[in-house]
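Subject: for your reference before the review

Hello V.,

The reviewers asked for a structural picture of the protein, and I figured it would be easier to keep everything in one thread rather than splitting it across files. Below is the amino acid sequence we used in the manuscript, unchanged from the supplementary table.
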Amino acid sequence: MAIKLGFVVAEFNRDITYMMEIEGREHAKFLGAEVTECFYVPGAYDMPLAIKKLLSEGKVDAVVTIGCVIEGATQHDEIVV
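And here is what came back from the structure prediction:
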């Protein structure tokens, strides 16, 4: 029986998170795991609610989170992460 994974992927910095998602899916398959659910959220700050929903439904064994917060001229990165 394969391990069932749920992915929560941030759409902010999508050019980066898209590649991370593709690599994550490929590696999960290589390890014999199956990605059965995938939620897309606006950004990393929005992930906890999606994670809670995935885990409470009981359809997945674990959740993989994929997001990218880039340090910039403001303190936004410190607030989000």
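For the response letter, the relevant points are probably these. The chain has a mean pLDDT of 91. The two ends are 35 Å apart (CA to CA).

Happy to draft the paragraph if you're swamped.

O.
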